[in-house]
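Justification of resources, computational component.

The compute hours requested in this renewal are based largely on the per-chain cost of generating structure records like the one below. Each record pairs the submitted sequence with a full C-alpha cell output. That output is archived, and it is also reused by downstream analysis tasks.
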Amino acid sequence: MSTALSGINANVFSGAVDLDASGWTADYEVATFDSTTTADLGWHDETASTQKISGSFDIFYNPAKKPTGSSAGIKPGSTPNLVLWVANPGGDNYAGKALIQKLSIKTKTAEGITVTCTFINKGPWTVPT
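The structure output for this chain reads:
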C-alpha cells in the first residue's frame, strides 16, 4: 500500500510567520553546460553545474499578517527565509533564503484577495532526502 499526502498541510512560512497559503509550486533543477568533446563519438554531452530552486506561492491577503509587512517581509527584492512545507508540522520541507521577484495581487469578489509571490533561491536550500 502506498502513502500519499493530501496537500492540506503544505504550508508556507516566511521566518516564523505562517503566510496562510492556498498552494505553492517549486521547480528544483540544475544548470548545465556543454562539455562535448571528440571523445563523445559525435554525441552531445551536458554536465551538471549549479542547483536552483524557483517557484511561487499563493497566499490570502490577511490584514493582520500583511505579506509586505515587517514580520513576513515579502516584497520584491527582499530575501526572507522561506519554508515550503510538504507536510507540516515536522514533515518534509524545502527551506532557504529566497529572493522575492514579484508579487501579483488579484481580487475576486467571492473568493477574496490573493497574492501570488514568485521567488528564486538566494544561496543554498535544504531539500528532503
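Residues 12-31+47-126 form one domain. Residues 42 and 91 are 46 Å apart (CA to CA).
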